[in-house]
Amino acid sequence: MSSRLVHWLVAGALWLAASLALASELPPKPGERDLCPVCGMLVSRYPHWIAVVAYRDGRAHFFDGAKDLFKYLGNLPRHAPGRSTADIASLWVTEYYGLSRIDARRAFYVIGSDVPGPMGHEFVPFATRADAEEFLREHRGRRMVTFGEATAELAARLDKGVFD
């Protein structure tokens, strides 16, 4: 084999490996019939709010908003019998401004704003603290929280309109 052919084969193999690695980091997309395991709503009807739990075995659960994602994570035995947090490969939410999927663990969330989600008060996700702070001011948000502060208990309080 010529050195030029070997060069192209190696370059192609590296490109393929990089593409596969990148593809495995992208969130799966819900189908038309996927239901939120917390509330039972059709997730595909709310593309601007979709949240995703992707499991190590390739399966995923989809949510109509981050609020139901946090309820789910707070009670896995109820919503996903047989699953544990160790089974989770990645968590995704839909960023409010860019509408792209971002890592839920790195997002900033605004609660108590004048922007309702599919089921009322919602955790509105942002990729940057600056975007969250801007949204907080412009949409009369009550406060910003991080992933660690966004608990199932706080999600339940949002349902009641309690933001503190």
From TrEMBL:
Annotated signal peptide: 1-23
Q: Which Pfam families match?
A: NosL
Q: Which InterPro entries match?
A: N2O_reductase_NosL
Q: Which UniProt keywords apply?
A: Signal
Q: Which domain of life is it from?
A: Bacteria
Q: What is this protein called?
A: NosL
Write down the species: Candidatus Accumulibacter adjunctus
